Amino acid sequence: xxxxxxxxxxxxxxxxxxxxxxxxxxxxxxxxxxxxxxxxxxxxxxxxxxxxxxxxxxxxxxxxxxxxxxxxxxxxxxxxxxxxxxxxxxxxxxxxxxxxxxxxxxxxxxxxxxxxxxxxxxxxxxxxxxxxxxxxxxxxxxxxxxxxxxxxxxxxxxxxxxxxxxxxxxxxxxxxxxxxxxxxxxxxxxxxxxxxxxxxxxx
Length: 203
Hints:
The protein is of the alpha+beta class and 203 residues long. It is 44% helix and 27% strand.
């Protein structure tokens, strides 16, 4: 039995691993007693950022939902977004002399088209703000005790960046806790940053 153990140890000590193609920033050392093993990790970076700012959207959401019916807020928000798209496409129709993007939309002079663009941007901001205020109210409602505007960020968000050939895949985890019952939840957000955009941020 003693000879068998010694032979197994010799066999393990004679094993070799090809680590030539590994980026050393992705290799970590793990200690087991007096032996050191190398572990290969994915090409990622983990760090923390400040938790999201919610005071402005919460104040707006509370004001709107306490003064107007939620159904009416949703209708006005949806109509505003649709009207903003019509206004922006009307601008594009008027701006391009030889091309009409949407046939049933009228063409105007470029000066009038710029007015449609401004109106479209204003309507888009209005519609997005109204719908986001409703969405925030739903997300801030505690899943445990059911109280509204209960979830608050309680610690910094965790970010994981994974490098790819096309760019960086970013995953952000935000941490919320109910201010009434203490229920904790996590919310993930995903984003993709192309390589060109990353180089601009670095500069």
